[in-house]
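## retry 2 of 3
previous attempt timed out at serialization; input unchanged, resubmitting
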Amino acid sequence: MDLDAPSLWWLAVGALVAAELATGTFYLLMLALGAAAGAMAAHAGVDSETQVTVAAAVGGGAVVVWHFIRRLRPKRAPAERNRDVNIDIGQRLHVTAWDAEGTARVPYRGASWAVRYAGDGAPAPGEYVIVALDGNELRVAPAGRH
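## retry succeeded, writing output
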């Protein structure tokens, strides 16, 4: 069986997409776009050198553009401080007393939780906001300054 140039390009697209699905490397999809552009060039009847040039320009350009898009996006907060991951971040609670190490026990969501002060200076009784979770310990900061 003899395959023509567009078929070879489409096989390359399929192989790149399959490799991306196996590895999770989004950049392979950008290269697959380049291979699809090479297939379109082959369908248009251009010579093989132009096909390769088109595929390299589109695939390489897409990789570069995606790289810069990812660099410009703000970095996500770590999971222990990310409100999208943990619904407790940003919730308020009242601490009635602190011990000498800056920890306390408070009722929260129907249970007694360990709380650690994450603000500046010495903790005082009052309203606090959960800013992070460390295992089963809540990290809190004063409600007015988080």
